[in-house]
Amino acid sequence: MLVLDTSAQQDWQRAVQAESNAALRAKALLDEIRSNSISVGDDAGRDTSCLLAQMGRPLTSPEVRRRLHLCNRNLIFEQSPDPSKMSICIEKDERVASGGFQKRKVFVCGMESGIMPEFSVLHKTEKQLPNPELLGSKTPTRDINWQRVPTFAAETRGWRTVLVRLLHGRLITEMDVRKHFDWTPSHESQKWADQTR
């Protein structure tokens, strides 16, 4: 006769569940470390947090607005509550309950209101995360071994980033960019190449 050893089975199920939870926590931590590191990664060997490396061909905000208006007359530029930023919007027709249409302003992206570098400058900070090697450790410790990981804090948006956003939103075309901005960056940019394929 077979007898079920329920306490042994329950212990085994708890052990399997604990191991699965530990594996999920370790994967989540490694994913977070990778994600934070990628967000501030370099661009074709150039440090994206260095203003001089990202400056390229700087343009003033009024010049960028002028060129963008040549690409699409429907773009609307508004001063943001933060005086260093502007927002780019577009009006879209939206169906209303009565069956008609009404114009609604839709936010597309933000841009700098002063001098804009060609490429975005990513301002870094550090995030403190537990060392992933300690998660699976069989020897418990009360002290957490912290690891400092560089991560994204803020951005000074470059005009090429604005172009990418508008290209992805199909608000401007590659031909517009070639005509009014020049398609080829001032120096090699893997991010521009990846985003404009």
Main β-sheet, spatial strand arrangement: 2-3-4
State Rg.
25 Å
Helix content: 25-40%
Query: Helix-strand pattern, N to C?
Result: HHEHEEEEEEHHH
Count of distinct strands: 7
Give unreliable regions as ranges: none
User: Strand share of the residues?
Assistant: 25-35%
Overall geometry: extended
Kindly report how far apart the N and C termini lie: 68 Å
Largest sheet: 3 strands, antiparallel
Mean pLDDT: 81
Structural class label = alpha+beta
**Number of discrete helical segments:** 6
Structure report:
With 197 residues, this protein is an alpha+beta fold. The chain has a domain at 16-72 and 115-135 and 145-195. 37% of the residues lie in helices and 27% in strands. It is built from 6 helices and 7 strands. The chain has helices spanning 6-39, 51-55, 61-71, 159-168, 174-180, 190-195, and strands at residues 59-60, 75-79, 85-95, 101-112, 115-116, 121-130, 146-156. The strands form 3 sheets. A 3-stranded antiparallel β-sheet has the order 2-3-4. Strands 1-5 form a two-stranded antiparallel ribbon. A two-stranded antiparallel sheet has the order 6-7. The chain is extended.
Q: Which structural traits does this protein have?
A:
3-stranded antiparallel β-sheet; 197 residues; two-stranded antiparallel sheet; 6 helices
